[in-house]
Amino acid sequence: MPPTDLSRLRLPRACRDALARPRPERIDGHTIAIAPDWWNTAMAVARLPGAPVTGPDVAQLSRGDLFTDAANLDTSSETELLRFLWRVLAWGSGMKLRLNRKRIRAVADNRSSAVAALRRALWAAREDPAKAYEALRPGGRNAIAYLGPAFSTKVLYFAGGGALDHPCAILDSRVATTLRNNCGWDSLGRGEWPINTCARYSALLDRWAREESGRLGRRVGVDEIERWLFRPTR
What we know:
Blueprint: H1 13-18, H2 23-28, E1 31-33, H3 36-46, E2 60-62, H4 63-71, H5 78-93, H6 100-109, H7 111-125, H8 129-136, H9 149-158, H10 173-181, H11 195-216, H12 222-230
Antiparallel strand pairs: 1-2
Helix pairs in contact: 4-5, 5-9, 6-7, 7-8, 8-9, 8-11, 10-12, 11-12
């Protein structure tokens, strides 16, 4: 199938309507229930830094929590980098923990290379989505085993700390389904997205965000569109 001409795609009316709701409500307040005891135990077994993933008696994480993490992150600190990774994985996984033990094991087995790849990705994420994605998916492979395209884009997204001009956005199976079924991106694959696909996705959301910024008279972040793509009723 030839690549879809993304310049012809228009943002669905339902998404435009959703953008009328306050950003903090839709984005910062997007909260996921997590399993902190599982994560803290897994960190102890693997003898990896970064625990605890939450404070005492806290069993959920919001996008706003992870924005705060990124804003205060010291990328020279291995402990802080890994804690940021665990928290992103915890938010992204929710209560579905199936592959996370393998991800943790992969970091433990190749700790220095995993931290180096994560550091390169976070440095690049604020300016160049393609370069940042390449740091976590070199040559179409996972730099950290079992950290595939969807979770790589989550890490790169949260690296922006919620900045409205951050160019990286989450691309997972639910977002991709909406892009295909509701927006007309017929050629979009189903999971193993190459770098050029992620670059085209970033450019598409950037165009839509600029168009909606002009319509609404305020700066619209690409994540506000991604949020609707993830769940078209929101």
